[in-house]
Design a protein that fits this description.
Length: 61
Amino acid sequence: MKKVRKYLVLVLMAVLALSLTACWNGEIGVVTTFNADGSGTRTITLDVMDDTLSIQQLQTR
């Protein structure tokens, strides 16, 4: 019974991971700003676009 439960949990986790990675369109952007002394900041932006409420679907590349 433990093996069946282990495989069931493994399959459910794989399905959940695949469904979460496949359903969301998004973009990752990085902006780096340098100061006069050579130091700087880096801003990482993750934009997740959800079109479930829109009339037109998102364009995929």
